[in-house]
C-alpha cells in the first residue's frame, strides 16, 4: 500500500461537488418545495459526516490531525467544518511556501505581510515589478494557492516591494480575485519530459512551449516577441532558450527575459491534484 495520492481519485472527488450541485439544480425543476427538501437533505448529510469528522479529530490527537491536514481531500472537508488544525495565517504561509519555487523560477518572490479579517496583504518581489505578463503569472499561481488553502480569504492586496514599508502604491484587490480569471488545464504528458527537453502543446486553442530545467518544468506562450514568430524547434542551452528563427536568447528561469526589455510570456504551471496543469488567463467579461 502507498501513501501517495492517486491523481485520478483526486479528480473524481473534485468533480463530485459539481455533480451534487447539478443534482440540486435539477431538483428546482420540481418546484420550490422539492428544491428546499433536496437542500435540507444535503445539509443533514453534511452535518452528519461533519460530526463524525469532529469525533475522529478528537480521538486522533494532534499528531494524526497534522498528517490528515496534508491530504487535499481531507483538508478541504476539515475547512468546511472549521476543524482544520492550522489557523488562516499558517495555511496561507504554507500555501505560499508551496508555490515559492515556482515564483523563483520566474524571477519573483512573495511575502505575506498581514491578514486582516478576510483580506491578505502580500508583497511581490523580483520580475513581477517590471514584467506585466510575469506579474499576471505570479498572481494566478498565488491566487490559486491561497484560495485552496484559505477559502475564507476573499480579497488580496498586493504591495510592490519598494512601497511595502510606506504602503502608498497598492494594486487593487480585484487585480487578483476579479479582473484576472483562470482556467486550469491538466497536462499529464509533462511528467514525461526529461531535463533539457522542450515540447510544444496546444491547450484550449493556445500554443504553449514547455521546457524542463532540472526537475522544474516551465511554460511559455509559443511566441517570440522579437521576430513575432513561433518558437517551434527551439533548443535549450543551460537556461537559455534560443529562437530558431531570429536567434534571440531568452532566460527561461528569469521570466523569459531577453535583450532590450523583450521577454517571453510565462504561463502558470503547477501540480494540481498531483497532475501538472497550466492556467490560461481570461480578462473580465470574457465569460458569459
From TrEMBL:
<keyword id="KW-0479">Metal-binding</keyword>
<comment type="function">
    <text>May be involved in the formation or repair of [Fe-S] clusters present in iron-sulfur proteins.</text>
</comment>
<dbReference type="Pfam" id="PF01106">
    <property type="entry name" value="NifU"/>
</dbReference>
<dbReference type="InterPro" id="IPR036922">
    <property type="entry name" value="Rieske_2Fe-2S_sf"/>
</dbReference>
<dbReference type="GO" id="GO:0051537">
    <property type="term" value="F:2 iron, 2 sulfur cluster binding"/>
</dbReference>
<dbReference type="InterPro" id="IPR001075">
    <property type="entry name" value="NIF_FeS_clus_asmbl_NifU_C"/>
</dbReference>
<dbReference type="GO" id="GO:0016705">
    <property type="term" value="F:oxidoreductase activity, acting on paired donors, with incorporation or reduction of molecular oxygen"/>
</dbReference>
<keyword id="KW-0408">Iron</keyword>
<dbReference type="GO" id="GO:0016226">
    <property type="term" value="P:iron-sulfur cluster assembly"/>
</dbReference>
<dbReference type="InterPro" id="IPR017941">
    <property type="entry name" value="Rieske_2Fe-2S"/>
</dbReference>
<feature type="domain" description="Rieske">
    <location>
        <begin position="184"/>
        <end position="278"/>
    </location>
</feature>
<dbReference type="InterPro" id="IPR034904">
    <property type="entry name" value="FSCA_dom_sf"/>
</dbReference>
<keyword id="KW-0411">Iron-sulfur</keyword>
<dbReference type="GO" id="GO:0004497">
    <property type="term" value="F:monooxygenase activity"/>
</dbReference>
<keyword id="KW-0001">2Fe-2S</keyword>
<dbReference type="GO" id="GO:0005506">
    <property type="term" value="F:iron ion binding"/>
</dbReference>
<protein>
    <recommendedName>
        <fullName>Rieske domain-containing protein</fullName>
    </recommendedName>
</protein>
